[in-house]
Fold:
Amino acid sequence: MEALDGNSAIAEAIKQIEPDVVVSYPQSPSILILEAIALFIANGEMDSEFLNVESDYSAMSTCIGVASSGGRVFTATASQGLALMHEALFIASSLRLPIVIGVTNRTLAAPINFNADHSDSMAQRDSGWIQIFSENSQEAYDNIIQAFKIAENKDVRTPVMVGIDSVVTSNLCENIHIQKNEEILEFENKSNPTYSVLDIENPKTVGSLCASDYFFEHKMNQNNGIENSRKVIKNVGKEFGDRFNRYYGYFETYELEDAEYAVILMSSSAGTAKKAVDEMRKRGEKVGLLKLRVFRPFPYKELRESLSNLKSIAVLDRVLTPGTYGGPLFIETMAALYNLDKRPLVYPYIYGLGGRDITLKHIENIFDDMKMAFDNGKGIPEIKYINLRE
Amino acid sequence: MVVLEELTKKEDLFVSGHGLCPGCGIPIILKLVLRATTHPIVIVNATGCLQISSTRFPLTSWKLNWIHSSSGNAASTISGIETMYKVLKKKGKLQTDTEIKFLAIVGDGGTNDIGFSSLSGAIERGHDFVYLCYDNQSYANSGGQCSSASPIGTSTSTTPTGKILPGKLQYRKDITRIIAAHKLPYVAQAAPWNWEDLYTKAGKAFNIEGPAYLNVLNPCPKTWGIPSDKSIELTRIAADTCIWPLYEIDGDNNIKLNYKPENKLPVTEWLKKQDRFEHLLNIENKWIVDEIQNEVDKNWNRLIYNEKKGINN
Structure:
């Protein structure tokens, strides 16, 4: 066991994977990942090229260059930085480049704020990237290691962003298991790239102009990659578990088997929610939790199986998407369940913006509210905001 | 000495079938530049006329490895490719023993404006690549909008001449000078009328280790308002009026003027042949013509002085 914060856990994983190139532009708090990597390289503990570039947009563009040359590449960013990458993210996924980035999920300005919420990653949810969210340092480490294997799978070839909550996870220490270097190398076993612009014997035109006659087919090919990742994510999570005894799937269920009421959320708040479930279970309440790990591809079929027998669900989104009925997690969960004959009632909650605390009490109140609303006759759930001044 | 006939015998790596306009300077510039090295070339092409016209899927005009990422990131994309090349070389994993050259090709919008920080950063990091800007002084691909390479007084679709405005009111960025301030191993300005000079400069740019920048005046019949058979001639007038001096600066700050007109022509000779400057010849816009002449003279004198004194900028 080693005591590492989320940033250091990611840096440790990258040290072991040793990508060909690491690209760096400072954003808080993700820069701590890159600083740690720079120091590993400076001390001769890992052998990767380290490039300091002049913006997050250029960081992603440089990653595109490395990956299109068949290289393994990593960068980390947060908040405004991820927003600035936006345009290039679409290009990376469309060119089927297995880039992996670490995102310390931090809210978007204005007003500027350095704490956690999922605004940055959620704004990229349609960029064609696989999106994985981590509860703690251990998951941050494990998810980064799995991310390369998922991204580089020949049927997938799709970039992956791994999120950890800013400050709460990125900067707080926890004891975690670090695997041996050789275990990681054996697990990763890098496959050959599908193409490389450095392959001068086989010249290729990459990133052509494509009009309406072929564009749709190209986009569907890209979509096949992320659809194929469903199986690969599952297999990689199982293989990881078989080797290291920590199993991963699209989501983690907690006391959900016989539950009547459940909360769905992502990332660090799951720790608090598990504790709240424990407390309520002690009082005989049939409550449970579903912590979503993979937001893209969205595991709608598996969610149906896990959720359809519940009476009601509270979906907690740590992002405000102005003008919508609930956040993205709520909307996608609703869409997954709507066509079922028998489905739970789903309540939209927004919480934790800009690092606003969510406590045991808040989650217990959500269960109580949901139960009361259900018992008092169904009605149409309205959006509720947790721990917000009136 | 370069023999044109010899050049014609070299293989074309950019072939016909592309959709560039008649009279466009790009294919001419490109064929010269691509012939200037015997090494394999990997190209990053920013969004623009060339990219759009040469790669309509499923066709391509390129017989070499070519990648397009976006409009503002050619230099950072090539940074990644060149770095990966070095990694593979270091690890002994390259599939070829031949040294590969890297060429970014970008218009003036992608160079002076949206890709400026990307270019500046790549030069600062010292990647080994050639950056070729084809400077047609506007966003020609999207229909001829004003760029920061558009000269003062230009009528563009976003700085149109109207009842009260005479076109663009700002000076253009002197991008070659700005890049030269980065103190890189090689910077040059060229134009297709002097094919031998352009070819020689491209050869130097490829041979030099580290970043090299070529700014080439690219005549655009569509946005300049000139007949397509006059485009190359126009670039010569640009040199004879000293609007577009041909020069180069090496890593030791030695500046060399490669063409000094025997008869320096007044800028009106350049302006009057193009529809985009037509309005400047009206008497009420004489002040703009005077300003252009003044600036051109100052710049030309500066270059002559710098050449004599061995000053970079």
Observations:
- Chain B has one domain: 4-309.
- Chain B touches chain A at residues 40, 42, 44, 51-52, 55-58, 60, 62-70, 72-73, 76-88, 94-96, 98, 100, 117-118, 120-121, 124-125 (CB under 8 Å).
- The longest helix of chain B spans residues 286-309.
- The beta strands of chain B are 41-45, 65-67, 101-107, 130-135, 186-190, 212-217, 247-250, 255-257.
